[in-house]
Amino acid sequence: MSPGTTRKPADSLDDDDYPAYTVGRAADMLGTTPAFLRALGEARLITPLRSEGGHRRYSRYQLRIAARVRELVDQGTAIESACRIVILEDQLAEAQKINQQLRDDQSASR
């Protein structure tokens, strides 16, 4: 959103980065505990935003990351290892995206 534009209330509905979920609601949606989400914060995998009252708020994007870690943990992976796997998966996806963009740019310039 550019500076000076006004955000409409409905804009947040489609924003994956909007911190809409409390720690309790997020944990409930993931079928886990607030302590699990705090552990992801301590591992620096996700950093929830804070409400004016200091309460943690999670976005849909952060919940997808947490859900992936939960899958790995449920399969027996240690939480620290699961966090590292998710980080590496994200880095790989970003590198593949950049490589594809470079290939597309190279093809277009021919």
Automatic annotation (TrEMBL):
One Pfam short name: MerR_1
Top-level taxon in the UniProt lineage: Bacteria
Domain HTH merR-type: residue ranges: 20-88
Signal peptide residue numbers: none
InterPro entries tied to this protein: DNA-bd_dom_put_sf, MerR-type_HTH_dom
SMART domains hit by this protein: HTH_MERR
Gene3D superfamilies in alphabetical order: 1.10.1660.10
Protein's UniProt name: MerR family transcriptional regulator
Taxonomy of the source species: Bacteria, Bacillati, Actinomycetota, Actinomycetes, Frankiales
